[in-house]
Task: structure prediction
Amino acid sequence: MKTFFIAAITSLALLTSSCMENKSENKETELQAIFPKGELGPKENFTGNAWNIGLVANDTMYNTLVGNVYFEPGARSNWHTHGAGQILIITDGVGYHQIKGQPKQTIKKGDVVKCPPNVMHWHGASPDTGMQQMFIVPNTEKGIVQWLHPVTDEEYNNAK
Amino acid sequence: MKTFFIAAITSLALLTSSCMENKSENKETELQAIFPKGELGPKENFTGNAWNIGLVANDTMYNTLVGNVYFEPGARSNWHTHGAGQILIITDGVGYHQIKGQPKQTIKKGDVVKCPPNVMHWHGASPDTGMQQMFIVPNTEKGIVQWLHPVTDEEYNNAK
Result:
């Protein structure tokens, strides 16, 4: 009887432990990934690791470029502009978006932000949590992207 | 001692049961919802329940309309066209997309489909599994949507 009880307790403990482990493993992955990770963005345009995958290539039928970026914690784009602006859709995680001259915004899963045409901005993950973000570059006949200088640590960490 | 064992077994059994229940509950929810559900699409334009939420309103700066639709199992849009085409991005679940004259496609999480300008198409969930789908209507100066007739059960279920 005692052996039975010990066996039963051990089995249940293992089952519970396994169930709880599966749940925490899910949280440690790169957030909720909808798309393949893609390729690392070049160091010339990003600080830290930003994984880019194209979803809709630019063409003359839709004039719309769409992609997904997974920013690892601390990673961000350089300052840059878009000839017709850009739309960002955050599908998981937490990050930042800043338009030149405006306060840095904290953005998270479910948020949508827009940057107007020919206005400098940057975006990336928060220091501790990554960010899954889709982007839409509309009206590509007006230009796609013009990359500028990196975002300094001071700018990245600035509370404003 | 026997009381202790019984209490321990009961506690562990409840803990395991609760852990497993949480996991299955997640699967029974409306898939991975990134955005609020929104409003039911009108019966004039949809068969079954299709929940629409706007993400980017149409304007003259971006000329791009973006939204999310959660199609419940069996739900679909009517046949319709878009003046500058449409891009669909499936973020969870399984569904169908059909361009007039072409075979019905099965689409799932991570897929991206495009419908050219002024071409009839419909999209919706599969019979047993819902679908979370973002849509992009680009170049809205050419038109947004023209709704047509419902998709018949025969068309919806057609293997072709």
